Amino acid sequence: MGNPSILDDVFESFVNGVRLFKDREVLRHDYLPEKLPHREDQIRLLGETVAPVLRDARCSNIFIYGKTGTGKTAVAKYVLSYLEAKAKEYGASVRFCYVNCRMTGSEYRVFANLSQSVGMSIPFTGLSVGEVFDRFRAGLDSSRIIFIIVLDEVDALIKDRGDSFMYELTRINETLNRSKVSIIGISNDLRLKEFLDPRVFSSLSEEELVFRPYDAGELRNILFERSKLSFQEGVLSEAALSICAALAAAEHGDARRALDLLRVAGEVAERQSAKSITEEHVRQAEKHIEHNRVVEALKNLTLQTKLVLLSVYHLSKSSATTGEIYDIYNELCGELGMGLLTQRRLGTLINELDAMGLVNAKVVSMGRYGRTKKIRLEISRSHIKDVFGSDTRFGRLIDYTPKLSKGSAGKC
DNA sequence: TGTCCACTGGAACGTACGGCTT
DNA sequence: AAGCCGTACGTTCCAGTGGACA
Questions:
Q1: Angle A40-50/A72-90 helices, nearest 10 degrees?
Q2: What is the CATH number of domain A301-408?
């Protein structure tokens, strides 16, 4: 369990050391601040759109677009919480349910979630989606309310499983007698239109709201507001604040990223017993976040996907084709005495690694020599060596020398 | 201009599993 | 216990394809 005296030191310096934070929760993603700077227009527009529910009328469905960290979720929650409170004041029976579709995972669970929020209990599994939907509808109708459904990251679900559940939802009002439903869809992907049935799309986007990315100046204001609540006075340097804003602005104006940077920079500074947070702490925080992201991603891969990535690793002097990787993967499976997947399946796994940013895969045509994907590592080799090298099942394969029997691997 | 390579990627289907309803 | 159900992970089949080469 380690040496207790070491931990004594760690804990003591944490408790008695320099305190930079006043309240670090303020910098977390799910913290909902009282003010949302630079989103006044969107708040007003959304407020105007949902206001009819205060007079017991159904409001228009709304579609909200914008990249991650542009304040979509915060604005939606902010407006609806306020609306719910106002509704109580006016005696209107309004309720809203927020569902993050990506976290929730499937249409079954989305409906299960919605059902629970109208007081129906739904088993974890065992029912058909249709059955869950029927129960939701019945529960909703008997509760006699105006129900606002917020489907966050709805693009994740639609791209994976199609839009049949959205179709059901958009038509639900036709079968309700005593309750009404409005839908607020939130998407990170501006091209969502392409994935949706035109009927569903037109019904969903009776109103549209677009959230533009924050620029560096706006991010700076947001960080400044939050830093007043999260840090002790005078602890955060001007330069550190600006660089956080600039780094996040360079990455499509993501406020979440900016807040993460600031929080981790504070933690780094605190650990070093620094009296203030400097530019250098932010730089270290940036490295720290990226390192953690990659290591976590690597650890959580399935064994087969790890072997695919390891095959890329063994070929990564230059980019490799799917066929070359499959050959190496074949060898590695042989070394471990494991069954191997088909090349078709391997292609899908490579696409998943590409989506995670661990490899870069590009479809190229080599004319007479066929059409394939060129794959190269997107992360440092040392990350793979560190994480996979300590794996008891296949760690030894890090130093494996491929036989490259077909001779083509490694060339460009 | 047509051929042909080495795949890509969609679609349908199979299997295993945990968990519900009846 | 039987019969469903959703989910995860995988296979099989196959039409489609960009561009070098003859």
A1: 40
A2: 1.10.10.10
Here the tokens at position A409 are: 């691997």
A402 CA vs B4 C1’ separation (Å): 30
Q: What's the DSSP call for residue A27? A: G
In chain A, where are the structural domains located? 4-26+214-298, 40-211, 301-408
Whether any strand C atom is under 7 angstroms from the Cβ of A365: the reply reads yes
**CATH number of the structural domain A40-211:** 3.40.50.300
How far is Cα A409 from Cα A412, in angstroms, rounded to an integer?
Answer: 8
With respect to CATH, is domain A4-26+214-298 assigned 1.10.8.60?
Answer: yes
Q: Which amino acid is at A117?
A: S
Q: Is the CB of A323 under 7 A from strand B?
A: yes
So what's the pLDDT on residue A203?
A: 86
Which residues of chain A register pLDDT less than 50?
Answer: 405-412
Residue with tokens 């994907």: A373
Residue A128 approaches strand B within 7 Å at CB:
no
Nearest to A140 by CA among A88, A91, A178: A178
A349 close to A307: Cβ distance less than 8 angstroms: no
| pLDDT at res. A1 | 53
C-alpha triplet A292, A296, A299: angle, nearest 5°: 140
